[in-house]
User: Fold this.
Amino acid sequence: MNLKTIGLVFAIIVAVLAVIGTAIKLSNPPAEVQQVSLSAVQARLDAAREAGRPAVLYLYASSCTSCRASMKNLNIVVKRWGDDVAFVIVSVDEDPLELQALLDETGAAFDPLNVAAAPEERIKAMVTALGATYPETIPYGVVLDREGKATYEWAGARSMMAWEGAIEAVL
Assistant:
């Protein structure tokens, strides 16, 4: 093989890899963050209850180390049970650029919502109304049954086994 042939083969390989890389990026477009009120979050939970669907409310922030570490499991859970469970995944980030960077980095498999302007006491009141106790720490999650009542809640990172058990119990 001469240098010209090697160069041509190399150029073809680079072009094929570029096309494959573009196709992969297009198949998983970056998630667009929606700035919402707590009323909009509550409306999504109400819609799940009215449809007789279990729901998961999950609160996180891009600045939280445990939240960042949990994103892989969160994406797996959403992909696995997203057809059967309403996932209401809410960031409390105040910096939209940090949040978008986290979502781009982790390839969010969910519809990202942000309630940056919501005071802690209003978040706590919403969670309390679900029958849960918000400890004012993140990550925080609560699994709701088909009637919208809390059946399992946690603060901090959770293993896949914990996610699976809590979700399977309400299906």
Q: What stands out?
A: The chain has two domains: 1-30, 34-168. Residues 3-27 form the longest helix (25 residues). The CA atoms of residues 73 and 160 lie 6 Å apart. The first strand starts at residue 34 and ends at 35.
